[in-house]
Amino acid sequence: MPSLRDIRRKIASVKKTQQITRAMQMVSAAKLQRAQERLLASRPYSDKLAEVISGLALRADPQQHSLLQRHEGTNTLVVTVTTDRGLCGAFNSNVLRTVTGFIAQHPDWTSQVVVVGRKGRDFLRRRPQFQVKSQHVDVFGRQVSFGVAEELARELIEAYTTPEGAADQVLLVYNEFVSAMRQRPVLKTLLPIPLPLTAPGDVVIDYLYEPSVNGILRELLPRYLEILLFRALLETSAAEHAARMTAMAAATDNAGELIRELTLFYNKTRQAAITKEILEVVSGAEALKGT
Questions:
Q1: Structure pTM?
Q2: Which residues are identified as catalytic?
């Protein structure tokens, strides 16, 4: 049985841990508010740009735009977005499980990974069966930068449009921010940029474009890819803070429960020790009376 001193040390240690988890919960809550504001501000622009691209793509020839052309090969590039720090529950493992599951489902494909975030890099580094094409760490610092999305977009466009890149399709896996209590992994196609589906009989209203539909698409398609990547980074940033806030709240509650159990155990142990000492004193007194 542990001594009273050991139990007191354990209680003090758990209390210090609880203070840390509570502080991390409060910090994540403050960061979540700022990250959520940036994300919600970016969504209307991203959605409207997607609507414009979809409308233009219906009126253009996909073969004239390299980012719309479909390739016949099976060389796949998977962009995996994780965080740089842990202590956020199953946040990163959900994304990595989606990536590894997708690659396992297509053993005949040649799959490479572009990893964003230190946690994803460390995970894939320990598994040589996955081919890491490039890595981007320290992305989620004080504030997500649009320059990271531009750099990623240039890399992906080069991989998809040049013979040296040899990518026939580019996929994106990240955690989407649904609410402060819920985040879900998403796997979507980045390249070729998906075209809108039209049913037979749908009427497509045409417009006059200046300079031309193809000219506008040539300017907007790379920008659209940058916006998609930037939105994925913002979604990941907000979802990370929400997941960490939830995980630290659960850790704080668990620490409080453990403190209550240890305190009860300490009191029982102390009471048993006092009772034992009283019995020893009484036994000694009775022994002295007998003499």
A1: 0.85
A2: 88
